[in-house]
Backbone:
């Protein structure tokens, strides 16, 4: 008998969202538990895990209102199965009877036959609820399934945009690609995709970004295996586009793994000496895979970006890309588990690490060179405030961030860039890019 994708989803979710809150990442848990599944069953399992993480607070709130007495802590699997079932009824078009019948059976597999009747009743009732109307009457924090600290921080940082950020962050992200400029221009790539019945639109902010109308598996992308296309959000494509360096210059990608931006730098600067550094040796293996797929070369180094003495050969760089570890609060659409794993207390530690990296890497840049600082965060402390403090510390640094955002033709581009005191802040936008921050810092010739 083949494995049940709903059961595999419950197994993964109990590792992502355990009772003690210290869960595995969604990506790791999927990898661990999808093994016995194939094809569409894997797709169903992944959808359940993403969907429950994305809408967790909303689903829990409604479920709790249905229960006459709370479920015991020991019934975690039953609770997770119920959340999966409610998610399926509310946010997918799977046939009602298939969903309503699947979960009581699953309760028996979970050795909780006592929950079969309850599950059946709850899932029938869920079918009578319009989740959009239900969420509309709830506070944003609950409707958009946000941890309280994050919602409060967004309100403090972006009083006018907080609700739009929250609403964009609950949507599903589009599949965005980067066309490899070595193989021609973006329009040619759109035509090549159309020939495979894959419809794509150009991005408006990064010159080689493409949005697919419908997500496909990477195997279906023409030339994916040969590096013609890569999967990368449009905002994430901006930092490497801001790097300026001589054709044969020296460029450091200081937090390189898994190599998305290293690959992009290799496409832009094929003759440069490119060094890809990361502390995580396991993730560095993915940088090597990315470079191999793109047919590109870089020196891959394991080391701490905040302690260059242990790995730097003393030769300065023309440009450094520092895509720093951060709260990931700009990419909740793609990593909804981050909402439940990240804590408010993590932020000061991240801000401290980012500052140490900036200070340690700055002396490695030759006069006139640059450092591009980027995060996938929406928090000021990690972004504009971080860079402003750095500029105040470093007499030979100036903010040289160009107007990367430019005119925008799409109607839904309501958030876009924000007036910040340093660099450029992008906020997540429905159907478009993630939240991202980027600042280009130029080293003046004389300190
Ligand atoms: C945002 S991710 C980088 C994503 C990558 N630039 C890309 O485009 O694929 C941050 C990376 O920083 C690495 N990192 C964290 N602390 C580090 C440190 N002290 N020194 C070097 N790398 C570090 C993490 O292992 C992680 O791979």
Residues:
């Amino acid at each position: 008998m083949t494995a049940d994708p709903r059961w595999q989803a419950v197994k993964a979710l109990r590792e992502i969202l355990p009772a003690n809150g210290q869960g595995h990442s969604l990506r790791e848990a999927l990898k661990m538990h999808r093994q016995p599944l194939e094809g569409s069953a894997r797709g169903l399992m992944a959808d359940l895990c993403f969907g429950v993480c994305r809408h967790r607070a909303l689903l829990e709130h409604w479920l709790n209102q249905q229960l006459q007495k709370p479920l015991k802590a020991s019934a975690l699997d039953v609770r997770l199965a119920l959340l999966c079932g409610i998610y399926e009824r509310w946010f997918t078009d799977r046939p009602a009877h298939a969903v309503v019948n699947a979960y009581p059976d699953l309760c028996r597999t979970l050795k909780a036959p006592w929950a079969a009747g309850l599950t059946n009743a709850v899932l029938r009732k869920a079918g009578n609820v319009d989740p959009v109307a239900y969420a509309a009457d709830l506070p944003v924090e609950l409707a958009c399934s946000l941890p309280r600290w994050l919602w409060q921080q967004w309100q403090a940082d972006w009083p006018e945009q907080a609700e739009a950020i929250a609403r964009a962050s609950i949507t599903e992200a589009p599949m965005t690609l980067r066309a490899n400029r070595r193989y021609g221009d973006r329009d040619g790539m759109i035509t090549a995709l159309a020939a495979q019945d894959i419809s794509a639109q150009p991005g408006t902010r990064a010159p080689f970004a493409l949005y697919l109308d419908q997500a496909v598996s990477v195997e279906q992308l023409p030339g994916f295996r040969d590096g013609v296309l890569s999967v990368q959000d449009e905002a994430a494509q901006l930092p490497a586009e801001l790097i300026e360096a001589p054709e044969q210059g020296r460029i450091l990608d200081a937090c390189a793994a898994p190599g998305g931006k290293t690959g992009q730098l290799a496409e832009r600067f094929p003759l440069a000496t490119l060094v890809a550094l990361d502390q995580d040796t396991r993730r560095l293996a993915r940088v090597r895979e990315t470079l191999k797929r793109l047919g590109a070369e870089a020196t891959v180094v394991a080391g701490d970006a905040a302690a260059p003495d242990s790995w730097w050969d003393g030769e300065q760089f023309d440009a450094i890309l520092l895509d720093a570890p951060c709260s990931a609060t700009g990419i909740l659409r793609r990593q909804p588990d981050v909402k439940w794993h990240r804590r408010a207390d993590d932020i000061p530690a991240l801000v401290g690490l980012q500052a140490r990296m900036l200070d340690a890497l700055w002396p490695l840049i030759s006069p006139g060179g640059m450092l591009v600082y980027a995060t996938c965060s929406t928090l000021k402390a990690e972004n504009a405030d971080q860079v402003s403090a750095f500029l105040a510390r470093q007499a030979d640094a100036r903010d040289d961030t160009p107007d990367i955002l430019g005119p925008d033709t799409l109607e839904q581009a309501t958030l876009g860039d924000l007036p910040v005191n340093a660099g450029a802040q992008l906020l997540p936008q429905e159907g478009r890019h993630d939240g991202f921050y980027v600042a280009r810092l130029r080293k003046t010739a004389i300190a």
About this structure: The CA atoms of residues 57 and 145 lie 5 Å apart.
